[in-house]
Amino acid sequence: AAKDGHSLAHAVQSHAVQSLPSIFRSPAAQGWAIVLLTVLAYAPAVGNGFIWDDDDYVTENLTLRSAQGLSHIWFQRGAVPQYYPLTHTSFWIEYQLWGDWAAGYHTVNILLHALGAVLLWRLLLRLDVRGAWLIAAVFALHPAMVESVVWITERKNVLSAVLAIASLIAYLRFRPDGQGVRFYLLSLICFAGALLSKSVTVTLPPVILLLTWWKTGRITKRD
Description:
- By secondary structure, the chain is mostly helical.
- The chain contains twelve helices and no strands.
């Protein structure tokens, strides 16, 4: 009975999707819908200014002022509050573009979060998770995400999330038999970028092992 119920639910869901206008059934439209929802939800943050810690990261961060400062971000211990050089490099680039204009930093955070939500949707589709679009939309709009998106200093969260999810997607396109080695290299590069954005992403390899176990029921030495 449970199996029949599950099949019926799947049939109803498939019918509902097929009932949508063709434009809304296209992956591009669904992806842009996530972006639009995210931008609409977080748009009020664009008008906000800087708050605590934003001085250390942006407004009073002397490394953002010059090319030498960019070198210090990467190679001088203690030059920035935390050694997240890719995150601070993103601030460096933006400071060259718009200086202390807070709206620019807020806009980039929002767009990065929207990109992260779209990538999460694509990852869940690849993992054959039911309701992938809805899960990604909840991720995009959930109140728990507000701090990461609207606080400029938390750029490290949204940037590292984009790179970590991209790393997972690339890894899942790699085949252990040697096919798609370029995806393995891409995954490794994205993982390194995630680490350089926020070191908590060191948890990504265990996540890959958990996904492997979930999908295959075992973890081999080769994995």
